[in-house]
TrEMBL record:
Residues 255-368 form the DNA polymerase III beta sliding clamp C-terminal domain. SUPFAM superfamilies: DNA clamp (SSF55979). It is found in: Cytoplasm. Residues 134-244 form the DNA polymerase III beta sliding clamp central domain. Residues 1-121 form the DNA polymerase III beta sliding clamp N-terminal domain. Belongs to the beta sliding clamp family. It comes from Pseudomonas arcuscaelestis. The gene is dnaN. CDD domains: beta_clamp. Its main location: cytoplasm. PANTHER family: BETA SLIDING CLAMP, DNA POLYMERASE III SUBUNIT BETA. The keyword Endoplasmic reticulum does not apply. This is Beta sliding clamp. Keywords: Cytoplasm, DNA replication, DNA-binding, DNA-directed DNA polymerase, Nucleotidyltransferase, Transferase.
Length: 369
């Protein structure tokens, strides 16, 4: 029982699926399931919260003898394949509870676990609570556009992920860590489906998994499934009710608009933050009719950074404090030459939005200086 495949071909698939297993686990959650037949080589991983399966097409490998199924240590297997010369032919054989990897003069023997120990995470078509198909690139881009706003270890568990909300013809993604909120609307085809919160820990896995082709999203209770040609990813979902983000955005939209050049604003924030010492990078904005002055806060009294950029603002002058790092991330994420910064007062959320992209909204909460 032996398969032959190029190291680069196998490494390409391992790059994605090997993200899932638990790094230090010695049980099945630290293993990959290899299932080999004449038609397909399947690589599966499970960490207790997610399960991913990728199929390597039959034209990329050859099988000698009968197929087999076995669990191999994920980290060791991935590192061994990555260490081999690019394009080298690799043979993987299974016998007597061991997997042997050979390439040229190199030979590696790994202990295995029975395939029967690998858990199964799935749901059937009749258990599905809704399905939606869209381009994988569209989904990946939308997740990245708001995913950085999601909390990771907040005690409010419903913030530790990205909300997927559906209406006829529209999918909305929202994420917040309590200090900022990101919202993006994506036009889709199909009927509304079950809302869900995708865990933060799964964001990058989904984005790397979906690829450029079509991807189907399906849900069933506390589980979501992302399917594409040659692969499927299941993940458990976060329980809880996401905050009413639309109410927060609507309130912020009523503020006063300052129009600025995005790159100038991002550059000024980054420069000023260099002298804002401490665990949190604080900056003070003084907004007037034709300029925004940005000043460092919290550093050495003798070390002060001050930058000024032009703006178009028609309201009373305003001073407000922000976490400079969070503000900078939002500004850089807005892919437009000009952005609108909508101030609702020194104690209320500020809305940032690209002029020509109203489907993307970010609300940044002020800080007390």
């Amino acid at each position: 029982m032996k398969i032959s495949i190029k190291s680069t071909d196998l490494a390409q698939y391992l790059k994605t699926v090997a993200r899932v297993p638990q790094r230090k686990a010695t049980d099945v959650y630290g293993h990959l399931l290899l299932e080999v037949s004449t038609a397909v080589l399947s690589l599966s991983a499970h960490n207790g919260q997610q399960q991913m399966t990728l199929d390597v097409p039959a034209d990329l490998f050859s099988l000698t003898g009968e197929g087999f199924a076995v669990c191999v240590p994920a980290s060791k297997f991935d590192q061994v394949i990555a260490s081999l010369p690019k394009g080298a032919m690799v043979t993987i054989s299974f016998a007597e509870s061991k997997v042997v990897i050979a390439s040229g003069r190199s030979r590696f023997s790994l202990a295995t676990l029975p395939a029967e120990q690998f858990p199964v995470m799935e749901f059937t078509a009749d258990q599905s609570k809704g399905e939606l198909t869209l381009p994988g690139g569209t989904l990946s881009t939308a997740i990245h556009q708001v995913g950085f706003c999601a909390a990771r270890t907040d005690v409010r568990t419903y913030l530790n992920g990205v909300l997927f909300e559906f209406k006829p013809g529209l999918m909305t993604l929202a994420a917040s860590d309590g200090l900022r909120l990101g919202v993006v609307d994506v036009a889709v085809e199909g009927q509304p489906m079950q809302h869900f919160i995708l865990p933060s820990a799964c964001i990058e896995d989904v984005c790397q998994f979906v690829g450029a082709g079509d991807v189907q999203i399906a849900t069933s209770g506390n589980m979501a499934r992302f399917s594409r040609a040659g692969g499927v990813l299941h993940t458990k979902l976060i329980d809880g009710k996401f905050p009413d983000y639309r109410k927060l955005v609507a309130a912020a939209e009523k503020g006063d608009v300052a129009r600025v050049a995005r790159e100038e604003f991002a550059g000024a924030m980054a420069r000023v933050a260099l002298l804002s010492e401490g665990t949190v990078s604080l900056v003070r904005l003084a907004v007037t009719a034709d300029a925004i002055s940005i000043q460092s806060v919290g550093g050495n009294a003798e070390d002060i950074a001050d930058d000024v950029l032009p703006c178009d603002y028609h309201a009373e002058p305003l001073e407000i404090g922000f976490n400079g790092s969070l503000a900078g991330e939002i500004v850089r994420s807005l892919g437009a030459q000009e952005i609108d910064v909508i101030f609702s007062g020194a104690a209320s959320g500020t809305l940032l939005r690209a002029r020509d992209l109203p489907s993307h909204s970010f609300v940044l909460m002020p800080v007390r200086l």
